[in-house]
Amino acid sequence: MALPPGFLDELRTRTSLAQVVGRKVTWDQRKSNQAKGDLWAPCPFHQEKTASFHVDDRKGFYYCFGCHAKGDAIGFVKDTENVDFMEAVEILAREAGMQMPARDPKAQEKADRRTELAEVMEQAVQYYRLQLKTNQGSGARDYLDRRGLKEDAQQRWDIGYAPDNRHGILTHLREKGVSDDLIVASGLAIRPDDGGQPYDRFRGRIIFPIRDARGRAISLGGRALDPNARAKYLNGPETELFDKGRSLFNQAPAREAAGKGQPLIVAEGYMDVIALSEAGFGATVAPLGTAITEDQLRLLWRIAPEPIIALDGDTAGMRAAMRLIDLAFPLIEAGRSLRFAVMPEGLDPDDLIKAQGPGAMQAVLEAARPMVSLLWQRETEGKVFDSPERRAALDHDLRQAISRIQDPSIRRHYGEEINRLRWELFNPRRAAVQTRPGQQSRGRWKPGGPAFHPETKGSLLAAASGQVEEVLREAVILAIVITHPRLLEKFESALERVDMATEDHVAIQRACLSYTGEDSDELTSKIEAEVGPRALEKLFALNHVQIAPPIRRPDDADLAALCLAEELAKLEAARGARHEVDDAAAEIGALADEGLTWRLSEAARVLDEARRGQGEDKGLFDRADNGLLIAREEKEALDALLKQIEDQQGGRKRP
Fold this sequence. Notes:
It is a single chain. By secondary structure, the protein is α+β, with helices and mostly antiparallel strands. The protein folds into four domains: about 5-95, Zinc finger, CHC2-typedomain (DNA Primase, Chain A), CATH 3.90.580.10; about 115-240, DNA primase, catalytic core, N-terminal domain (DNA primase DNAg catalytic core, N-terminal domain, Alpha-Beta Complex); about 250-425, Dna Topoisomerase Vi A Subunit, Chain: A, domain 2 (3-Layer(aba) Sandwich), CATH 3.40.1360; about 460-650, no CATH class. The chain is built from 30 helices and 17 strands. It is elongated. The termini are far apart. The model is unreliable at about 435-465 and about 615-630 (pLDDT under 50).
């Protein structure tokens, strides 16, 4: 609604900022000079002991020298009451005795009608409150007592009871002069389709008032006491006052608590909200008998940027979470998302608090998971990805889900995180190595050095320096990928299979595999943010990297693709032969047999052919430069090991 010129100026003139702020703070009398409108207090926006919050009442502005919060009376009400601009204006106008500008006649008529319905609803709330205290309400009181809701809590939540009577609220409101049309329009009574007499909607139920953001009663929720009732919970119908998909239970108190820093929690029902709020989690709301709607999501984000969805840990709860993810994806923005706190299986928040206390609930909230985590769970849980087709299906489903995200920056970050999770799923051993730097396993090269069997430490095999060449080849591979990120699409699987030899290489490899763009500078910035600039400086300072053709000629994409394929093939061939050697070396503790000798001979032959550019991989090795050194040294180490085995076998020749 547009405000007429001068309205806000008059409102600020009539409003004392000192009075507005004084409701929330305690003035420091030693620093303050009230006569001059110069007031100081501890800041209401951040925790502090000194009075650094300053109010200049004459100018109508406040400023905190600690957290730098600043503004006028309207801004202060907005921030402390967690309301929007127009609501803050209405609050201050009521206090200042100013009439809000009139709306057009139709809008005013509609507003008056809603006010009338809200007054009828408030009368109903008070009637049901009184019924809870009568003899008819004894069963309801017993139930509430069993649920841990004592009389003071019942009063705070205005909980009532609707007797099992067809004309209880009807008779009461008629006696107050309320027409049947208003009673039916408010949702308190039902008029039969045949035009007969209306009757009470809520009968034999515990009543929970549903209020809007301004605290007005707009509908009711009822919990049946009869276990055979058709519906355990019953909400009022859609009315001129109540829209289920645009309302939240406990909205106004939750908004105020969230404005004071509490996390916004979304529970499943009335009792969960009440239990959480009574346990100290005041910023808790619930949808009203339906799955969360798009309008409710937007309403939640107006209260807090990242609500926590508290769901039961059963199958139904997880299904609800997955549906909500699909609903939220097109709507999320930077700083506006959801997290999911999954309850222990078989427990809802009320049960958990009663059994283990608020601390257990706090732990569940702190462990809340981001949406990308649940998306990954949905697409991978209970599935086996043992074929290229199944992996491709997973990639397709994930791309489809992420494509619904409108914000390109968020979509890119989701892609990076999905790539990271995918890398860990399909490379579990390497992922484990990354979390335990330096750990070694038999027959494999790990960060921290090769893992040789104790019996071979003194042999020539242990002195071979081929590992150094492998590290250099890894560096060339990574440098090509960083310089030509577009090659990732073609060589992603081959790069995934490489067991990087150092922690820096593992980290750079992981960053590359999680990148989804095509810009080298952007990829470089990402790696620097994750690994640090020093790792890249060391990588590109290597002579082997600097003389690599794709690095010297960064504009030649075809050359880069050819060289990358060659380097990957060389590394795979060399590592394959090394694994044979390591496995054989581990068996030397016992007398080697002729089969073992033959395996070593074959490994030596493969390396010899690689060095000479023969065999199946000839095309990949004809331009081998630094590859000759690794082949020669590995072959020398193999020959020495073969001789050692032959000596143990008593001089028997190789087959």
